[in-house]
Amino acid sequence: MAVVLLNKALLTSFAFRQPVLLTTMHMAGFASVTWTLTLTRVYPLTRITQHWRTLALAAVSVCSLVLGNCSLRLLPVSFSQALGSTTPVFTALFAWALQGRRESVLTLCTLLPVVAGVALASGMEPHLHVIGTALCLCAASFRALKTVLQV
Questions:
Q1: Considering the entire predicted model, what is its pTM?
Q2: Pseudo-torsion of CA 73, 74, 77, 81, nearest 10°?
Q3: Residue 126 class from Cβ within 10 Å (0-12 exposed, 13-18 middle, 19+ buried)?
Q4: Full residue range of the structural domain in which residue 113 is found
Q5: If both were cysteines, with which of 17, 96, 131, 141 could 90 make a disulfide (CB 3.0 to 4.6 Å apart)?
Q6: Residue ranges in the chain assigned as alpha helix (H)
Q7: What is the number of structural domains in the chain?
């Protein structure tokens, strides 16, 4: 949540107009921390054997971050978080479509209030921006796809 609030402040209050650059800065920061942890042997270096799968996972991750940061320029953080709560719905859809895995009826029933809540919040949001909402939902779907690909 702190990163989301920082991103929102940078993109709106401080007139930082480059969400892709902001995502690149985040990735560079994460890479430097990982590199430092590897050098100090806190986290051991592992050999990557599934290059294409790792590359696909990284691309999906970056798309999720970029779309999320772009949506923050157009939406309030609270509404962005509400839309982000649809990630489990997308996860269930992608797990079914890509892996043939079906969720239980109880799980699907628990997702209905989430969808209804997001629909209600969307209808009542005074700062609703259609493109921002679409970007945020795409970011949520990419987060869900990342989850399915990790399994």
A1: 0.74
A2: -110
A3: exposed
A4: 2-150
A5: 141
A6: 2-8, 19-39, 51-72, 77-84, 87-99, 105-124, 130-150
A7: 1
Give the span between the Cα atoms of 142 and 87, in whole angstroms: 9
Please give the full DSSP string across 69-104, using - where no structure is assigned.
HHHHTTS-HHHHHHHHTTHHHHHHHHHHHHH-----
- Token pair of 74, please? 């157009």
Which two three-digit tokens encode residue 24? 């690149």
What is the token pair recorded at 37? 């942890």
